[in-house]
Every structure is written in C-alpha cells, then in structure tokens.
Amino acid sequence: MIHVQNLEKNYTIGTKSYNVLKGVDFKAEEGEFIAVMGPSGSGKSTLLNLLGGLDQPDNGSITINEESIHTMSEKQRTLFRREQIGFIFQNYQLLPNLTVEENVGFPMHAASKKRTDIHQTVSNLLNAVSLTGKEKNYPSQLSGGQQQRVGIARALSMDPPLILADEPTGNLDRKSGTEVLRLLTTLHQEKKLTIIMVTHDVYAASYADRIILIKDGLIESDIRQGEGANTDVMANILAKLNS
C-alpha cells in the first residue's frame, strides 16, 4: 500500500537550515491502522504532509498503491489526493457557512458527482458517524466531537483507501476523543481502511495496530500491538518519548 524509502526533508528559515526528516524508511500494508508519535519538531507532521502530497521531499521516494507521488506534478497530486486520500484535521477544517450535509458532500460536488449519488452517500456517511438528524445544522451548532465526526464523514466521502489523520483528538476532551477513536476503529475494520494517525497522545495511539516513534527526523521504534502486553508497549513508548 505505502512504501517510503530514504525520505528527507529540509527547511530553511532565515539563514538556518533544518533537517526535519533524515532518511525515513517504512512500509504500510493495506488495512493497517498506524499511529505516528514523537516529540514536537520530530518530523511526524512533515511526514504526514509528504504522504498526502501536500509537500515534496528533498530526497527519497513515496509510493502509494504503486503510484510514485514524489514524481507527480502539482495537478497530478491534487487529483491523486482527491481520489485516494481522506484527510482528518485537528481543528476540523469545516466550512462555517455550509451545513453538515454540505460540508460532507463538498468533495463530491468538487468532483462533479451526480446529485443523487451525493445525497445517498452523505446520508449513509452521516448514519455511519451517528449524525443522522444533524444534516441542516451548521458547524457552530455542533460540539467539538460532532464537528470531528463531520470531518471524518467528509474524509470518507470519495471512498478513499487511505486516511491521514493529524491529531484528530487534539482539540477534544477525553470522552469526545474516545468516541472519535472508537469510530475510527470501527470504520477501519468495516471498510478495511488504511489509517495513518499522527498523535502526541499515548492513549490515542493505543487504538492503533502499530505505533511508529519518530525522534530527531528518524524512526526510533516500530512496535506492533500484540507484541507484548498493551501496558508494557505504552510504557516503552512513554519512556522513549521522555528520553
């Protein structure tokens, strides 16, 4: 599904150059739920942006479903994102002047899908995220957890095989965050989605099948759930984050 090789990304701010990613290698199989963790500035969000084709690497390669996105033009990357990737954001990124159903259907309208198909897909997705009855509400009329569920439905609207989630529970309290994580887990299992989730939260990461820890621009550890007691895995990750 995903193959990343020797991925490097540098940024220049003023006269200083920063090596954010220093040669990252990993593979993700279809249907995996992967949490990417690391301290602030470790490169985890940069990795997510590169996987989503929102930025270009300085070196290395990214292959998703046998397509090399690092060699694509900007237009090709835009089309690839629209068809192959769903994005979930920490701050939801909902359009405030559109209703719930309009926000969820927006990507399909942009892709010139048939209105009848859009209506049916939106209805099915809102049912899947337990928001039936909220179709005509605006984002300001929803709780944070409900807004994130709208964001998840929108991410699924084009039926992408890959979901990239950037701190999806970062703005939520524990109860709402848990509901979102359980929803992601259910959708992952039912739709056989591949999910890559960046998070600071060990609790959120515990919902994933696999945890990749990035530190100083490199993968420090790659742990699959089930390779030991869950509490031991979490303790190991915490120790490495704090070292």
Automatic annotation (TrEMBL):
SMART domains recorded: AAA (SM00382)
Stretches that traverse the bilayer: none
Domain ABC transporter intervals: 2-241
Protein name, per record: ABC transporter ATP-binding protein
UniProt xrefs under PROSITE patterns: ABC_TRANSPORTER_1 (PS00211), ABC_TRANSPORTER_2 (PS50893)
Organism name: Fictibacillus phosphorivorans
Any one of the GO CC terms: membrane protein complex
Keywords, sorted A to Z: ATP-binding, Nucleotide-binding, Transport
